[in-house]
Design goal:
586 residues; alpha+beta; 7-stranded antiparallel sheet; 5-stranded antiparallel sheet; 38% helix
């Protein structure tokens, strides 16, 4: 769910309580579209996260810290110049829009007090963070919008800032007059559309909630709804508006029937009362919780886009090469016939007249001694025709041998690349991506690695760690380096090793500690191996398992590649709900 005007109102209510009168201490810009402002207020330090990324734009207080670039971006430096040590004197939400104005008073170069506005626009892919002076002149923005990108509104330094155009009513100014106007404009529309299409900051989900509270179906047509029901709709809308004005919020997240996060709200969503809910004391705590995984995944996708493109390009190259190799094998599939022609010509060398274009003889290699007709080059003698066929046979024989070797190498490379792609999709943090990038560089798929400026402390990424229902520790490799580390160095001989059969995926290790591993743990480990593989969305995925002592790495094999013997095979249909039930260790 995107942040609507109601959630923004809840956020502003919290920020006013905690930040008004506070002073800006430090400003960071960990991402191109994200800033973190450290603020001291009432003797406490607060961190305000503001992000304008297209998928999850928002702002809220945060407890988390993020790594920052060695050299601060230009926008960050502009913010520091104008806002550092500034006092927060106002936080507003104009017209109940998804816009937050943070008014910050500071001393300018002339020693005079001046007020700057940090404007946060929460509008999906059009989200932005904009700094203006007291006259609404833009000083800078996280995203510059030129006339080429938008003919309606430019967002560039030196331009005058104005709000995005809107013809909707301010929901906080709701009265019977504008509600009746919206009814007239929505005569042929659904009740849900009547609300969210005519009032700022109202999402479809919230419009549906108002209908639910009025005991009306959101999909009902306005023209077919009685005046009494429309009045009930208005009264319920008005009641919620009054609660928002009075700061009566009740932040909650809602889980789907499959126990997955799918919705959040700043007020109680009665339409979801039959589903599991989780209450929060503050909207910041809710947003931090709700977006933790989603935001991390979004950032991971952003940072791994080039890797996915590179890997997919090489997979396509291998697939094309394989098609060519198969085509070549078809073209030389009759090579043994060439050898047969040469031998039959040699056996009948004195029976073939000079200048003949064909020669028919018995095929003494055939049990039935069937007749065979052999094409000849009339300009060549019989021995020369035989030699010509032998040369062609030997050439195609060498080609067959070479193509067989090349196909084996190509298949191994294709399997490796598909495994790497699965590793990218399984990655959970930036260090995983760095290790995969390093591996691709070592394997020759990346010609040059970008070198970081300055000294940056890096730690090895860690495999996923689960604890089975029987208390056994289970580890899942997220990339080939981790797979090799787990299988070849971490695991002991009697630990159990799991991997999908001929399908790219993670190595899974169950630490036995000398004990017999119960069937339930074996099944959970096999489920992990199937889930963290290319077969994640398939049914009955074959998972091989054996003692680690039977797993070997051939000399010269690529990272993550092993061979094994005396294995058993389990057939697993991966299910995310089953994986979520397995206890995850810290």
């Amino acid at each position: 769910m995107a942040l609507d005007g109601i959630t923004i109102s809840n956020i502003i209510n919290e920020l006013k309580t905690k930040l008004l009168g506070g002073r800006v201490d430090k400003i960071y810009q960990p991402e191109n579209d994200e800033i973190i402002i450290s603020i001291r207020s009432l003797g406490k330090a607060h961190k305000l996260l503001i992000t304008a990324n297209a998928s999850h734009p928002r702002l809220h207080l945060t407890e988390k810290s993020k790594s920052n670039p060695m050299q601060p971006p230009l926008f960050c430096m502009v913010l520091r110049k104008y806002l550092t040590s500034g006092k927060i004197i106002g936080i507003t939400q104009p017209n109940f829009e998804r816009i937050i104005n943070i008014h910050i008073e500071s001393i300018n170069e002339l020693g005079d007090y001046s007020t700057k506005k940090l404007i946060v626009e929460i509008m999906g892919k059009h989200s932005n963070i904009i700094l203006t002076d007291e006259n609404d002149i833009i000083l800078d923005a996280a995203k510059h919008i030129s006339h080429e990108k938008s003919s309606i509104r430019e967002v560039l330094p030196g331009k005058t800032y104005f709000f995005p155009p809107s013809n909707k009513f301010d929901a906080m100014l709701l009265d019977e007059k504008n509600f009746k106007i919206s009814i007239q404009k929505s005569h042929t529309k659904k009740l849900q559309n009547l609300i969210y299409e005519h009032y700022n900051g109202i999402s479809p989900s919230f419009a549906s909630e108002i209908c639910f509270r009025a005991s009306l179906d959101p999909s009902d047509n306005v023209s077919q709804t009685s005046e009494n029901d429309l009045n009930k709709l208005y009264q319920n809308f008005k009641s919620i508006v009054e609660n928002i004005k009075n700061g009566n919020f009740s932040p909650e997240v809602i889980y789907s029937e499959k126990n997955k996060l799918f919705e959040f709200s700043s007020i109680e969503m009665k339409q979801y009362n039959l589903l599991k809910k989780q209450k929060f004391l503050s909207i910041s705590d809710l947003l931090e919780f709700f977006y933790a995984e989603k935001d991390a995944q979004y950032r991971m996708n952003q940072k791994s886009q080039d890797l996915k493109k590179l890997i997919n390009h090489n997979i396509e190259r291998c697939a094309k090469k394989k098609d060519m190799q198969i085509k070549t094998l078809k073209e030389i599939s009759n090579r043994n016939t060439l050898k047969l022609y040469g031998e039959l010509i040699t056996a009948n060398i004195y029976s073939i007249p000079k200048g003949a274009e064909v020669f028919t003889t018995q095929n003494f290699y055939d049990e039935k001694l069937s007749e065979i007709t052999i094409p000849l080059d009339p300009t060549l003698t019989a021995p020369e025709n035989a030699q010509k066929y032998f040369r062609r046979y030997n050439k195609e024989k060498r080609t067959f041998s070479a193509v067989q070797t090349q196909m084996k190498q190509n298949d191994e490379e294709l399997l490796y690349l598909e495994g790497i792609l699965t590793s990218v999709q399984t990655s959970t943090d930036e260090q995983d991506i760095k290790e995969i990038r390093q591996e691709l560089y070592e394997q020759g798929f990346i010609k040059k690695l970008k070198q970081s400026k300055g000294k940056i402390k890096t730690e090895k990424s860690k495999p996923l760690h689960y604890i089975s229902s029987d208390g056994f520790h289970m580890y899942v490799g997220k990339n080939n380096h981790q797979n090799d580390e787990l299988t070849l160095r971490f695991a002991k001989g009697n630990d159990m090793w799991f991997h999908t059969k001929q399908i790219p995926g993670s190595h899974v290790i169950v630490v036995s500690e000398g004990k017999v591993i119960p069937n339930k743990t074996l099944n959970e480990a096999a489920s992990l191996a199937a889930f963290y593989s290319k077969g994640k969305n398939s049914a009955l995925v074959p998972v091989d398992y054996t003692l680690k002592k039977f797993v070997k790495k051939p000399a010269g094999a690529k990272p993550g590649m092993v061979i094994y013997e005396t294995n058993k095979t389990a057939y697993i249909t991966p299910n995310e709900e089953d994986i979520l039930k397995i206890k995850k260790a810290d």
